[in-house]
Amino acid sequence: MHLRGVLAAVTAAPGMRRALARMESGGARVTVVDALHGPLLAAFARDYEGRVLGIAPSLSAARSLVDQLRAWLGDACPIELFAERDSLPYDRVPTDAGTRSDRIRALELLANAPRGIVISSGRALIDRIAEPAAFRERTIAVRRGDRVSPGTVIERLIAAGYRLTGLVEQPGEASRRGDILDVFPFSAAGPARIEFFGDDIDDIRSFDPITQRSAEHIQATLIPPASDLYITPESALADLARIDVSTLDTEFEQSWSHVRAMIESGTLPDSPEILAGYLARATLLDYLASNDRIVAFDWSAIEAAVEAIEHQANESRASAESRGVIPRDLVPPVTTWTDIAVELNRRGRVDVGADDDESSVSSARLNGFHPAQPYGGRLRVFFDDVVAARESGDRVVIISQQDNRLSELLDERRIEHTRGSVGEEEPSPGSVALLHGAAIVGFRLDRSADGGLIVATDGDIFGWTKPRRATRPRSSARDTFVIDLEVDGLVVHVEHGIGRYRGLVHMSRDGVDREYLAIDYADTDKLFVPVEQADRVSKYIGFGDGAASLHRLGGTEWARAKSRVKAAVQEMARELLELYAARQVAPGHAFMPDTSWQAEMEAAFPYVETNDQLTAIQDVKRDMETNRPMDRLLCGDVGYGKTEVALRAAFKAVMDGKQVAVLVPTTVLAQQHFATFRERLQAFPIKIEMLSRFRSDRDQHAVVAGLKAGSVDICIGTHRVVQKDVEFKDLGLAIIDEEQRFGVVHKERLKQLRREVDVLTLTATPIPRTLHMSLAGVRDMSTMEIAPEDRLPIRTSVEPWDDGLIREAILREIDRGGQVFFVHNRVQSIYAMAQRLRKLIPEVTCLIGHGQLPENDLEEVMARFAAGDADVLMCTTIIESGLDIPNANTIIVNDADHFGLAQLYQLRGRVGRGANRAYAYFLYKRDRVLGEIAEKRLKTIHEATELGAGFRIAMKDLEIRGAGNLLGSEQSGHASAVGLQLYTDLLAEAVAELRGTQAEKRPDVSVDLPLEASIPRSYVPDEGTRLALYRRLAKVTRDEELAKCLDDVRDMYGAPPEQFLALVWLVQTKIAAAAAGVEQINATATEFILRFRREQPERLRLLEPAFEPYVRAGRAYLYLDRVGLGGRWQATLDGVLNRLKPAAA
């Protein structure tokens, strides 16, 4: 969508030409309402011959301005955001990848493009960044046919701040594998794969960072630096060497010395921002040319915001210096606002604001523009005003995410209107245009010769709007539950049981060098598994903290354990299947397909849906549209979008005339869901009510009466909703949140509900994908593992207790209008800790919540905190799950070394649910010596900050907690005995067998032939990647899969070496042997022996004439003459197996 035609009407307004001319000459002031900031800047930049820098008071205001400009101008002009860094100037916190990407794209525009718009907050202007010449020098342009060595490109990428990795998955990463070089530029939508032929660039392809498969061929790509800070010869390395670290705490002294040594060796640390004063001398203003224009929106607010940041940074610096965290003589990483303001004045800054400055001779006032009329959902009044505007010759432009619904309503009132783009021309007088979109701020323009202009948006019409962010498309997550084997970690071999993996080892046998998986067992036993059998080994995941015992090779214990588990899963599968079959034949309501209003409601969702969300929504709708009762379990971390799936299901039910019950375990959650449902559905004629003890008796009686009469469409509440006095007129859907937290009596009522209506159950407990797949066909489940687009990784610090740090962390959060969780998990001392906190920060308000409070008191505390009545909630781990308070974005966990990894992850997950950056501080006693396990946990939680990390870092805790909740304690024990992977395999077999859908089991073929079949380290250097590739090849069962695997490897690594092709041939031979009925192929000094699964002498003897004299047949054997065949033995073996395949089929 673009609004260039509307922009033409704005530009033609009285006084606008004069204002734009004053802006072009510089040093002007334009007085106009805030709603016109976007179109004013768009109108100016559209025709201006240079670049334009817009300055907003805050990052959120800057983002809003970028969204507006993209809507007004479409693709007519490049528009980028120069985002401010994520932390205060003296914090040692790395800048998030998304922020870096925004900054690099903005710098690339200013460094290379002749025209365009960059929007920045005032805070971002004080950042020290690399000089423009250094940025351009480190920008690498590559084109097909260019002559340059891959080594040279890698050196330049490292100098530009790119990090070398095994696989390129994130912006800022690069990887070289022989003649293949992968790189993910920060300015690009995806990574590029550059293939060399010698020192010539032979091909460039884009590729998917998830699947690693190449996509399109491209002619060229521009690779800007991966950072706006880098080490240059001009860097003040001598000054850096003179930093006095003697005042630092011992731990920080070592850290600073290490960072200094890294920089002196030419390596940039992970968090270089604090050293920006040594690495860079420029600011964003240095990237501007003399004819570029600067436009500041609300100058006084910009100044106030930056001065507040400077004050906060100075306090932070003083605190950090006194605690020995940073050196006392550190060169500031930012310049001063005073210097920036002087430079802005020198460059002829244009001020845009709502207040007049009569002292300015170059001021221009746009009198005819006004803020839009707010209607707050009063649609009748809005449509009356539209009719009146048309009759007066005014032009009306409506921009809404609910354009289809508004079009229906306009048609009902016989108001003529056009749909789609308004084009390049001005709207005609008396016209009404209806467009799909968001991001615009509405306004009114007084009537002139061409009539007035009214631009109305969802915010004006309905009272709310949230622009859909322009983001990179989300890919599906990797299978987060397939975890690579870890050296020294426990593994399970299908035949031999639990052992300890020691890594890949090279061994020579009969003069042939091969790789094997080395596994230790009990009594110093060792097993060496050929890499082509790597699929028989999986990571061991068991229950609880106790370590599993290693099995003995050749013992009977493993066989007995497998037998017990197999019997147990067969019984469980039988019970599940019976329940599933009963539900299949039960009568239910088949809901109608989606209405146009459904599409409108879904279009108003202010975020980009994840692929998991879209899949879950499709699953739920498909279930609802069948004539059997739905019973679907939706699993996903808190904040991953389950509520939106539930909302859409509820809306669908109401559109079909049915009522909806939403059951939650606590009053606080009921209040939260009630607010969410009302906000999302307020534009529709749907009555939503809540039943909980927070409502008066009178209100509750009214709700109960409304449910019985059918006037209430959706009722949200606790177990109160399923009490005997509550009757629904026509209940069609029940949504149950965290069912496991309800009592026994209520669970019985929920069971009864399942027989009567559609049921959607939500849980924040992660369910392993492997377990999910094994239950396919007996339990309807949807899983959500991808974080929503706007969520940022949580900044995590692991520190010793420090009063200054705690004060700083809490005040930072409160200063930005947020709230803080403070977790102290000892009830006996929680009040003393709260008192200590009050003394430390007297200005904050604090509530206390713990599990020993009476239930009503605890719920009241939680509700008050959720309502924003206090700055800090001092609490135990009662907040571990279920509580969703987007305004709480800092969590401090005291004595974090006492918690398990899953608990730490769950606690950290309480923050970071909104679009704001969240912070987590895990503290331990300063004088405490951490145990090895505690130290490892804290190190893991600190390093694993990426979204969805819990599915990887806490595999054991989270997966098994999920499996335990789903399967029950008895089945949990069985899964522990054999490991989760084998347990789920056995369960899948049992389910398939009972349903009669079991595919024929792939025959197990053992192939041991004298070939150097391996993946050389020179071809795939990373051991983890090499092992993953071995495991993938070992699982291949069809020629098509093998061909795809070979294509992927060629694509990623280039032409494969002989050893790898030999490995591929071995896999091909196994596939052919399985089809031919062969169970084993091995070699002696004189012959190759093929052993078949059954005796078939006649069939085998028929082969002898075709291969005489080199093939001899037995009853269940074929013998190939190794000596006589010489180098032709592989071709002969292929021929034999191909002759046998059709007969086996």
Task: Please characterize this protein's 3D structure.
There is one protein chain. A hairpin with a 3-residue loop joins β22 and β23 (497-509). This protein is globular. The strands form eight sheets. The protein has a seven-stranded parallel β-sheet, sandwiched between helices. The chain has a seven-stranded parallel β-sheet with strand order 29-30-28-31-32-27-33, with helices on both faces. By secondary structure, the chain is an alpha/beta fold. The chain folds into six domains: 4-128 and 273-365, 3-Layer(aba) Sandwich (Rossmann fold); 140-223, Penicillin-binding protein 1b fold (2-Layer Sandwich), CATH 3.30.2060; 372-461, no CATH class; 586-784, P-loop containing nucleotide triphosphate hydrolases (Rossmann fold), CATH 3.40.50; 795-946, Rossmann fold (3-Layer(aba) Sandwich); 1006-1144, Transcription-repair-coupling factor, D7 domain (Aspartate Aminotransferase, domain 1), CATH 3.90.1150.50. It is built from 40 helices and 44 strands.
What are its keywords?
1145 residues; alpha/beta; Rossmann fold; Penicillin-binding protein 1b fold; 6 domains; globular
Would you summarize the structure shown here?
The protein has 1145 residues and is of the alpha/beta class. It contains 40 helices and 44 strands. The protein starts with a helix and ends with a helix.
